[in-house]
Design brief:
With 280 residues, this protein is of the alpha/beta class. Helix content is 48%, strand content 18%. The chain is built from eleven helices and ten strands. Helix 1 crosses helix 2 and helix 5 crosses helix 6. The relative contact order is 0.12.
């Protein structure tokens, strides 16, 4: 409690200064805000929080730089091997089979906070392989992020050799075109993944407008919740749960597994793996 109070005392001036520049950062976790401030101090050569506060107050460019630093974009293809193995071997085949039995409606997936696209493209690669043997089921991925620069890279579908370094060779050969040092996602996958700018804290919508309605078979929201305060975490989770179909799955990051268990009416389908389904 004392530690939390100390974080509030340190973060409040920061929040007020950012408000002066038109940036509302009050939704972010306090510890995350302070760590981000410390990183900016280091990169600018500033020696004290008080001095950095003065710089931030007078310098709108630094205020924007600090705000941009809060938009964490680190991601990888097939980031959690165990999670993606479960998606590949159990979850996605089950969803495909369900749609085969229930009719022609498309399998719908929402990747919330998709960053530069590696997460939705990883799922698309798995679905593409399944689709080769079960072509009767249509599928679509709606990938959203709040950062326009992230989305531009995601839409391009172009990645360096280093960025695709942990992808299996058969996926590199089937899902990408190689051009010099770059790998580009094949057009057939591009046709099924739609990227759009969307704020999960937007209270006026229940799901990305381009998806038209919710009812997603799978929602993926990894390593996003942990950057927000408890109130915003609950708000985001509530929105995502409302967008999930009755028999849908929810995938989150390992660091958020306990949070989702505590704050939602969901159960892990396998102990220790952050994939959830509604409790019966």
């Amino acid at each position: 409690m004392t530690l939390q109070f100390n974080h509030e005392l340190q973060a409040e001036p920061l929040i007020q200064i950012m408000n002066l520049h038109g940036f509302d950062v009050s939704c972010f976790d306090l510890f995350f805000l302070l760590r981000s401030r410390d990183r900016r101090m280091q990169s600018t050569g500033c020696e004290s929080p008080a001095l950095y506060a003065l710089i931030l107050e007078k310098n709108s460019v630094e205020a924007r730089n600090f705000y941009q630093s809060l938009r964490v974009s680190y991601t990888l293809f097939f980031r959690d091997a165990l999670t993606f193995a479960l998606l590949e071997q159990r979850i996605l085949p089950e969803l495909i089979e369900r749609h085969e039995k229930n009719g022609p409606a498309s399998l719908r997936i929402w990747s919330a906070g998709c960053s530069t696209g590696q997460e939705p493209w990883s799922i698309a690669i798995l679905l593409d392989e399944i689709h080769m043997t079960k072509p009767g089921v249509n599928w679509r991925i709606f990938a959203t992020d709040i950062d326009a620069a992230n989305l531009e890279k995601a839409r391009s579908g172009i990645y360096t050799s280093a960025e695709v370094g942990n992808i299996r060779m058969r996926y590199l050969e089937s899902a990408f075109q190689k051009n010099a040092a770059y790998y580009t996602i094949e057009q057939r996958l591009r046709d099924r993944v739609e990227f759009s700018e969307y704020d999960v804290l937007d209270e006026t919508t229940s799901s990305p407008p381009n998806s038209i309605f919710g009812d997603f078979d799978l929602i993926v929201c990894c390593n996003l919740l942990l950057y927000y305060r408890a109130e915003q975490q609950r708000q985001i989770l509530d929105k995502l749960m409302r967008g999930l179909s009755p028999n849908g799955y929810f995938l989150t990051g390992e660091t958020e597994r306990q949070l989702v268990s505590r704050e939602s009416h969901m159960r892990e389908i396998l102990p220790g793996v952050p994939i959830f389904k509604r409790s019966s």
